[in-house]
Amino acid sequence: MNNTKRAKELEEIILKHSSPAGRILSILEEIQEREGYLSKESLKYISKRLNIPLADLYSLVTFYSFFNLERGGKHTITVCMGTACYVKGAPKIIEELERRLGIKEGETTSDGIFTIKSARCFGACSMAPVVRINERIYGYVFPESLPSLLKLYGWKEK
Amino acid sequence: MVKIKINDQNLYAREGENILKLALKEGIDIPHLCYHEIFEEPYGACRLCIVEVIKDDERFITTSCTLQAQNGLEILTQSPEVVKHRKILLELYLAQAPNAENIKKLAEKYGIEKSRFPKRAFVTDHLNGKCILCGLCIRVCGEVMKAGVINYIGRGPSTKINTPFFEENPDCLGCLACVNICPTEAVSAEEVENRKILKSWSETKVKMKECKNCGSLFTTYPLWEKTKSLLMEMDTELEELCPNCKRELLIKKLTKNLPLPKPY
Ligand code: SF4
Ligand code: SF4
Ligand code: FES
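Above: inputs. Below: predicted complex with iron/sulfur cluster.
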């Protein structure tokens, strides 16, 4: 994104959230929604514009696991590691995903398609183990069912 | 004035007076790491300053740096209960900051030789295995110096203190307030040629200002600039002050109008 375009977008977002309560979080949330992550440039812009030290913003966004500081792949696969999913074999799912996609948790495939992440509980424990791909939740996922699931998102078995 | 009792000592205090500060002034030793009187609000982070409060039939443990003097307040600073909790705290601190000399000394004083907890930091980390995450450096940099160079990063067991993105931070004034306030001497900085290098803060470098006449490096560039603009603003205010009062007023203005810390 070039700088003038970024500035225009960010100004629009800042203007929208004018109430002081929870303002920063709402602004950051919307930037992430639009850009997919929080770029260093955007954080620097917000820091200058709202007169909040960059160190404070960085502290905030590294506190909440919700925020991404790196651009993710086109599809983000999030494996639930909450208690129920963990017991039902979530670590095995991560292992299998890492093997199939050739990346580690937190990384993105070199073609920029998939990112693997983990999270704590989506509130869907009854369907454990649970995997979320982008905004969709899939229940009862097992290592063996991963290939067919990934194929829905354009993955091809090598 | 209100009457309070610390251990066997009856004392008078101003209502609302900070108990830790008062005790220290009276020569009563209460270990503490995160309290510094430059801040109006105590933080209550390190928990080492705990004391036992006796109130009617009730007894409870609380931090003395957040406790205020009230008529009839009675506290114990070394009761078995206090010592028990403080020992566990020290064991945890030995794991968190195994290289901090004053923590080692304190632990020794309480008869602790080894921590049962796994070590959390190492000599090789950017804070030399000495940081207890008390936050004093962050507060002095942000609240007093108004620089906001560093902050907590992440959370839980992987919490760190550093500059954003672990990169050199151009906002640093090189004032070394963070180095001086750190209770465990964790923050390291050095002067190399004409620059201050904040080694702990992602090697942030700050240029020094040299005297036009003799060439000695007498302050950092950002501090000099800040003082210069203040001096211009305060031109008439300073005219009739002696060098001492000039200095005091300048520091006051430089550090957010807070009074200078006075020795106990
Ligand atoms: S030396 Fe830099 S980081 Fe330390 S308190 Fe001063 S401005 Fe902040
Ligand atoms: S570096 Fe020192 S002052 Fe800063 S949090 Fe760690 S122990 Fe406290
Ligand atoms: S000095 Fe009171 S909690 Fe740290």
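Chain B has a mean pLDDT of 91.
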